[in-house]
Amino acid sequence: MGKREIVFEITDKTGRKIHLSKERWKHIQRHPHMYEQLENIKLTIQNPLTIRYYEEDEDVIYFYKEFKDGEPSERYLLVSVKYLNGEGFIITSFFTDKITGLKWQTK
Q1: Is pLDDT at 5 greater than 90 in this prediction?
Q2: CA nearest 85: which of 12, 7, 9, 18?
């Protein structure tokens, strides 16, 4: 993937590199209230409230950060990241009212 197709690259709380592609950023902006959330997505990856996963697919990790000033239905920003060969890419991000999944432990 060419560098010009990357919106940003960042190191997550676990020390792994993650990038957001332009294609995925366009997808994220279709969710309500996500248009101005680029900096909050970065914050969520670097300093999450919690990190979760589902046993069905341990390569996908969910970063959550709480934003108390939002609507109750939009209290948490979720950033979904898939890891391949040690590097991650953002699948999607949106606001939600609850945290789900199993608590992720650093391996």
Answers
A1: yes
A2: 18
Diameter of the chain measured on Cα atoms? 39
pLDDT, tens only, 37-95: 999 999 999 999 999 999 999 899 999 999 988 788 889 999 999 999 889 999 999 99
Which residues are registered as beta bridge partners of 80? 62, 92
User: In this structure, are residues 19 and 81 in contact, taking their beta carbons and an 8 Å threshold?
Assistant: no
Cα–chain-centroid distance for residue 22?
15
- Please count the other Cβ atoms lying within 10 Å of the Cβ belonging to residue 32: 10
Task: Please provide the size of the chain in residues.
Answer: 107
Look up residue 82 and give its two tokens: 């898939």
Nearest to 88 by CA among 23, 34, 13, 3: 13
